[in-house]
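Case study: DUF423 domain-containing protein.
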Amino acid sequence: MNKRIILTAAFLGAVAVILGAFGAHGLKKLVDAPAIDTWTKGVEYQFYHVFALLYLSTFARYRNKLVNIAYFCFTFGIVFFSGSLYLLATRSLTNIGFAGVLGPITPIGGLLFIFGWIMLFFAALKDK
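Here is what the predicted structure looks like once written out:
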């Protein structure tokens, strides 16, 4: 198992729990229902990819470049995809006009997720 991958997954998992709780209890009173749905989608995808990172750590013993690429894709996918959704969901609170900038960042995060899954697929094929 790869310590770096597990530490990243543990940290991002804890952050997902905190952000999920904040969305369910604190944020619900501050933003509208569509913003809560956006926030929730960010938390969901963060959790999915935390579990993907944990699974990925089981391949790390093979020192495979595909594992490293998948690690970076999942990690930065969480930052770009979920992070941009968190910012978009709270834009009415922050009053920052970054929606035009964040619009393209969310799909980049999604593409990173897809590429990470493809790398995991090929890492599994390469596994003996």
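For the exam, be able to explain this: The chain has a mean pLDDT of 90.
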